[in-house]
Amino acid sequence: MSEEIQKASEPTAVNITGLEEPKVGVYLCHCGVNIAGVISMDELEAYTKTIPGVVKVTQYKFMCSDTGQNLIKDDIKKGEVNRVIVAACSPRMHEPTFRKCLRSVGMNQFLFEQANIREHNTWVHMRQPEKALEVAKDIVRIAVAKARNLEPLDVMTVKVKPVALVIGAGVAGINVAKDLANQNFQVHLVEKTPTIGGHMAQLDKTFPTMDCSACIITPEMSNIGQHPKINTINYAEVTDISGYVGNFHVTINKKPHYVDQSLCNSCGGCVDVCPVITENEFDEGMKDRKAIYIPFPQAIPNKYTIDMDHCIQCGLCKDVCEPHAINFDDKPKKIELDVGTIVVATGFDPYDPTDYKPYGFGRFENVITGLQMERELSSFGPTTGKPVRPSDNKAPHSIAFIQCVGSRNCQVGMHPYCSRVCCMYAMKQARQYKEKHPESDVTIFYMDIRAFGKGYEEFYEIAAREYGINFIRGRASEIYENPENKNIVIRAEDTLLKRPVELEFEMVVLSVGLEPRKDMQTISRMVGVAQTGDGFLMEAHPKLRPVDTLSDGVFIAGAVQGPKDIPDAVAQAKGAASAAASLMARGEVEIEPYFSKINEAMCSKCLSCIDLCPYGAISFDKYEDVVRINEVLCKGCGTCAAACPCGAISQNHFREKQIFAMLDTAIPVTANGKI
Amino acid sequence: MTDSSKIVRDYDLFLGCVGPNRFPQIEAATMLVFEKLGINLHDMNGASCCPAPGVFRSFDIPTWLALAARNISISEQDQRDVAVICNGCFGTLLEANNIMKTEPGKRDATNKTLAKVNREFKGTAKVRHIIDILYNDIGVPAIADMVTNPLRGIKVGVHYGCHLLKPTGIRPWGKDERPKFFDELVEATGADSVEYKDKYMCCGAGGGVRTAVKDISLDFTREKLQNMKDAGVDCLVDCCPFCHLQFDLGQVEIKQIFNVEFNIPVIYYTQLLGLAWGLNPYDLGLLPTADKPAGTPPYVPTQPFMNKVLANMSESPVTEVETA
After folding, report:
1. Can you list the domains of chain B with their CATH numbers?
2. Domain stops at, among A138, A155, A172
3. Is the pLDDT assigned to residue A142 strictly greater than 60?
4. d(CA A490, nearest CA chain B) in Å
């Protein structure tokens, strides 16, 4: 006997082919009190023992811990079980953990099934423990039905191209590109606008160190432009992504500049003669630009672009351009790339307060947004760093900042979340204005000051104590314009003094929050990454996999995942670069074998599955007269298997006999055959 | 143009309390205007107080919900939607209807109470303010088309009222906190809706404030009337009998308390619309009959407003006058 145990504990001794009579071991996890605090584990154990096919039931406080996993390993090694069920949390959390546990003792990892009795049961039914126990019994019984029919599957590996695509060249995208390129991977950096730099290039100074944003970002931009491993594709948009992890095929639409970028020497002669004046997006509409333009003086690449929406094609620029770079016949170009990994860093949009009528943005001249104030404060902005109010171009003697505009507000069209940067940028702008005009009166209307980062609280302290900025705790209820002097009157409740206030200011800055980009839905669909409830892209796990997504090979960095400040965006960028690099450095990746298979003998070649497949994984070979499924392109959605009129398609790990076994046990049939 | 086939032709008219008890002319004018539109407003048998959203709901939500659901159940039985003429009734019935339709727990509990009086809330009726019906179903262009006596040169101070607009989530005008729909309806009559300070402010009466602290509630009213006077209005137009009471009778009370006189005639929207459509101003309650007893509305004489309407009409004669 002891010899046998000795022998069975050798990992190589385990050889389960899946053809043996199933011996199901069920491991009930307490998950601390998450599960055991709601239902009686002893009763669940007693019930589980009565399920046909179950040979072993064990309960433990934390099955995912080393000790918990060893319980499973020992039983496998002893030959007691050849199918494993862990009844615990969602498989999204720990399925990989337990599969690895099976693999480590030489058992096929697909002979494992996880029964989710936490998210699907004790968390939602915590106030009805008795009914929750019944649900737990059902979930475990159904899992056993599936486990008895599990088959071993082989994991496939595919090669990963050592080339990365980075979408968006703001501070996050730039850092991803830089880190990957410095590890010698080829990087294609795609930017929608004519210049890289993103929103950070619009900022004047950065909190809390008050160092100049341009001094930080412009050298980075310049390095990116010159890096031999980085191919910057500016003024371009990704229009399609096909393929799979390691082997994505990307289609990019490069918009026409109407100025030959290789010939333009940035002399600016064209700008002087261009007669068309339009709004400058880079200055948030605070300043004009010509139809032929460079977004800002330090733009990279520093070449001109014609805005065809406004250009009248008068040809004056063409006449003066010495290198003959102007080309009105320029056409969009299609660029196709093959890449191994994709990092999405498309950033955010500032909240547009026009729709929030009580704050009068767009109706009252002297109400501006935080980003407009930032441009006013910038030395290369519309007022060369000397803020003025729009109605009379004079420096205001009093400014109020209204916080949480578009954030922390549950009204329709607003966002319940905190945008995380507005408290700090408002205090920064307030301090900057106070430095220029110490005699001025600067007030911040806030709900809470959220100064959470390194050095932020100290920054707040100094703003209040040394700069004499007034802080009034209360959300402004509404504002109106004094028609005589265009001053803005704010009504609010000072909640600390418990009294209503009505104060007049010469200018009001709305500290607008960050929201998902308007085209987020398109991006989300294209890269196959879902959006969270707030509209930002969803990470694979909020704590453990913050830069990964559930779409293999696609990573996210920066404000595309949620509002964040520059240090956090850069940190996430470096994380995303590292995650993408680890895939590419390994050179190959394992693919779950959940693809569909086709039984040629049963296939009637109706070809209906080909049109239904959302991944283009099914094709018809005319010469051999067979329908084929590409195992790597197939994502295992099961659409074809469900639709096949001949029942010729089956999907690995979700075979018909597995699903029907689950259904049969889920819905008990009475003696007279009725459900 | 509105598709006339989609217009519902029959409604239950929920009168509420202040309307029938204090301002019968509001009901009269509304009946006349809807008759002209070919929409029948039916009496509701056994309807009670809505009950008032500020007073009842603030004290006991289940009671408030049960009474409101009972009222709606009458219309369900009649197989008609409810039309209301009062912002307070609108607030209560709209929100109660929404709660009853979307929260099964509260619906079941309320239905247990209703079962005691042999009633049940089924969730088949809609609650519509007459302003909602006029704006969203009939439409401003159709209303303007029916105008025979355009009220040119008349400056109107529009008062929306709180319960017409808030909470914005389930109102039929969307999320806009500075809407223009009522102004559009007023301007359809040919009058001008003038901008004035704090247009969206409360009349002062709601939430039980008028009953509890009358002078404070009248101070609100005084401020609003002052803002309208500064903008030079000829009259105030509202769509709620309680706001109407606060502005009309309120001006008498303000004179007593604050010794300020405004003399701004207070007119309900259907009265204004009826006038523009050529209906008889006596029938609309816009002019007092010879036998009008003292102490009955309107408390602020409407004669100056009517004189201006007539004067403007004779100055700029209308070509297609239809005799009422």
Report:
1. 4-130 (1.20.1050.140), 139-323 (3.40.50.11810)
2. A155
3. yes
4. 13
Own/partner contacts of A530-534, CB < 8 Å, gap of 24 or more, are A532/A562, A534/A415, A534/A416, A534/A417, A534/A562
A159 in contact with chain B, both atoms CB, cutoff 8 A:
no
CA A38/CA A136 separation, integer angstroms? 11
ipTM for this model = 0.75
Pair A422, A507 in one domain: yes
Query: Within an 8 Å CB–CB cutoff, is residue B176 touching chain A?
Result: yes
Is A672 within a domain? Answer: no
Which CATH number is A150's domain given?
3.40.50
> pTM higher than 0.95 for the full model?
no
Count Cβ–Cβ pairs < 8 Å, chain A vs chain B.
17
* Residue A52 Cα distances to A141, A144, A491, angstroms: 9, 8, 71
> A612 with A572, same domain?
no
**CB A437: neighbour CB atoms within 10 A?**
17
Asked if residue A505 and residue A368 are part of one domain, the reply reads yes
* pLDDT band, residue A17 (cuts 50/70/90): low
Closest CA to A169 of A156, A178, A159, A161: A178
Tell me if chain B has a CB within 8 Å of the CB of A491: no
Does B230 contact chain A (CB < 8 Å)?
A: no
Say how many C-beta atoms besides its own lie within 10 A of residue B130's C-beta: 23
Point out the domain boundary residue: A500, A515, A530: A515
Q: What pLDDT does A8 receive? A: 37
Taking only Cα atoms into account, the Rg of chain A, rounded to an integer number of angstroms, comes to: 31
Measured between CB atoms, does A413 come within 8 Å of chain B? yes
Q: Does B177 touch chain A (CB under 8 A)?
A: yes
Distance from CA of B54 to the nearest CA of A (A): 21
Q: Are residues A524 and A647 in the same domain?
A: no
Q: Which ranges in B79-213 belong to alpha helices (H)?
A: 87-102, 104-115, 130-132, 140-145, 162-165, 181-187, 209-212
Quick check: A234 and A194 in contact, CB under 8 A? yes
Per-residue pLDDT at A15: 67
In a domain, A479, yes or no: yes
Residues of B in contact with A358 (CB under 8 A): 177-178
Specify whether A49 is located in the same domain as A190.
no
Chain B closest CA to A481's CA: distance in Å?
10
Asked if residue A491 and residue A383 are part of one domain, the reply reads: yes
Q: Say which of B169, B176, B197 has its CB closest to residue A480.
A: B197
Mean pLDDT by 10 residues, chain B (324 residues): 74 95 95 96 95 89 96 96 97 97 96 96 96 96 96 96 91 87 97 95 92 94 97 97 96 96 97 96 90 88 92 64 44
- Cβ B169–A412 below 8 Å, yes or no? yes
Encoding tokens for residue A237?
A: 């948009």
Residue A674 in domain: no
Same domain, A499 and A572: no
The per-residue pLDDT for A674 is 57
A47 and A83 housed in the same domain: yes
In chain A, which among 457-486 make CB contacts under 8 A with chain B? 480
Beta carbons of A413 and B175 less than 8 Å apart = yes
Percent of chain A with pLDDT over 70: 96
Q: What is the pLDDT of residue A2?
A: 42
Q: How many CB atoms lie within 10 A of CB A177?
A: 32
* Distance between CA atoms of residues A119 and A134, nearest Å: 15
Q: Residue A625: which domain range?
A: 596-651
Question: How many structural domains is chain A composed of?
Answer: 5
Q: Domain with A379 in it: what CATH number?
A: 3.50.50.60
Q: Which residues contact A398 (CB under 8 A, 6 or more apart)?
A: A440, A441, A442, A443, A504, A505, A506, A507
Domain assignment present for residue A465? The answer is yes
Nearest to A412 among B175, B178, B197 (CB): B175
| Cα–Cα distance measured from residue A580 to residue B270, given in angstroms and rounded to the nearest whole number | 68
Rounded to a whole number, what is the distance in Å from the CA of B198 to chain A's nearest CA? 9
